[in-house]
């Protein structure tokens, strides 16, 4: 029984003499979870496609009852097969750069 008495006398708590510098509980910066943005469904609506200019060899010809007519002249330098581009007031060859002005 004597031991029990000793236990009682034993100071269970910390000695009051030393001032315990209690730090305020440092709040841990909450680990921010990468905010998952609500995945927006890609809108299916698309702007109406702009029709591309028709291209191809067939655009340089015109077929009617008279037969085949070439809508643009051949390049004088490059010869048949090299059409010249119509620039309104002039024709120009993309192959050699030859330019011929339209006679007004
Ligand atoms: Zn040419």
Describe the structure.
- By secondary structure, the chain is mainly beta.
- The protein has a domain at 57-104.
- It contains 1 helix and 6 strands; from the N terminus they run αββββββ.
- β4 (79-86) and β5 (90-93) form a beta hairpin.
- The chain is rod-shaped.
- The mean pLDDT is 79.
- Bound molecules: zinc ion.
- Zinc ion binds next to loops.
- Tally of DSSP β-strands: 6
Termini separation comes to 132 Å
Largest sheet, strands/sense/barrel: 4 strands, antiparallel
Number of H- or I-type helical stretches: 1
Structure class: mainly beta
Strand order of the largest sheet: 3-4-5-6
**Mean pLDDT value:** 79
Order of helices and strands: HEEEEEE
Contiguous uncertain segments of 5+ residues? none
Summed up, what is this model?
The protein has 104 residues and is mainly beta. The chain is built from one helix and six strands. It has a domain of 48 residues.
Mind sketching the topology for me?
Layout: H1 2-9, E1 61-64, E2 67-70, E3 74-75, E4 79-86, E5 90-93, E6 99-101
Antiparallel strand pairs: 1-2, 3-4, 4-5, 5-6
Bound molecules: zinc ion.
Q: Which key terms come to mind for this protein?
A:
single chain; 104 residues; mainly beta; four-stranded antiparallel sheet; 1 helix; 6 strands; rod-shaped; binds zinc ion
């Amino acid at each position: 029984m004597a031991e029990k008495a000793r236990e009682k006398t034993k100071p269970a708590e910390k000695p009051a003499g030393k001032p315990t510098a209690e730090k305020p509980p440092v709040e841990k910066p909450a680990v921010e979870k990468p905010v998952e943005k609500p995945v927006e469904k890609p809108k299916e609506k698309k702007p109406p496609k702009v029709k591309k200019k028709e291209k191809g060899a067939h655009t340089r010809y015109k077929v009617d009852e008279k037969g085949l007519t070439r809508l643009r002249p051949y390049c004088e330098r490059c010869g048949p097969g090299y059409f010249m581009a119509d620039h309104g007031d002039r024709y120009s060859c993309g192959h050699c750069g030859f330019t011929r002005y339209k006679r007004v």
